[in-house]
Design brief:
Layout: E1 2-6, H1 16-25, E2 31-34, H2 41-49, E3 53-54, E4 71-76, E5 79-84, H3 93-98, E6 106-108, E7 116-120, E8 123-127, E9 141-147, E10 151-157
Parallel strand pairs: 1-2, 2-3, 5-6, 6-8
Antiparallel strand pairs: 1-9, 4-5, 7-8, 9-10
């Protein structure tokens, strides 16, 4: 099983780049997750129509954002995923969010715009970075979670020439 993961899109409208990510980059995924900061009702409507499972981010202040929960627990492929956006400053972000969940195999989050693919003990901490606004590393990124006997994350840089 393969899950596409994106976060921090911060879009006011559906762009060609977003459609490319959902329909091409994530074409052969079984599921797509969005870890918040969608930023508009139009984009949320598009993502929901595409079957994307999302949570509300701290910048999601539009009427439709109330349809989204602040966090989700998703059981899939024999694993338990915690999906949340994030809040507060970058210091201790991972530990703050870790405290929001019990008994998960993977914490999927956003907020920092910085990709993370880190295993600590049994738990995978996975942040796909931002698909539209580069973090300090200056790359726009999304992610994949590969679920079979194990759970493995992969960060995918997006090419700059296709940005809209």
């Amino acid at each position: 099983m393969k899950i596409g993961v994106l976060s921090d899109t911060h879009l006011r409208r559906v762009t060609d780049e977003l459609v490319r990510i959902v329909e091409e980059v994530f074409r052969d995924t079984d599921m797509i997750l969005h870890a918040g900061d969608i930023a508009s009702g139009e984009v949320l409507d598009y993502l929901e129509a595409a079957g994307v499972i999302a949570v509300r981010g701290n910048m999601d202040r539009y009427d439709e954002a109330e349809r989204l929960p602040g966090k989700r627990v998703i059981q899939v492929g024999g694993f338990v995923l915690g999906l949340i956006h994030g809040y507060g400053g970058p210091a201790d972000l991972m530990s703050r969010l870790d405290a929001e969940f019990e008994a998960i195999d993977c914490l999927v989050f956003g907020h920092s715009h910085e990709p993370m693919n880190l295993r600590q003990g049994r738990r995978l901490y996975f942040n796909p970075g931002s698909a539209t606004i580069p973090g300090r590393n200056r790359a726009r990124t999304v992610g994949l979670l590969h679920l079979n006997e194990t759970l493995r994350g992969e960060i995918l840089p997006l090419s700059e020439e296709n940005k809209t």
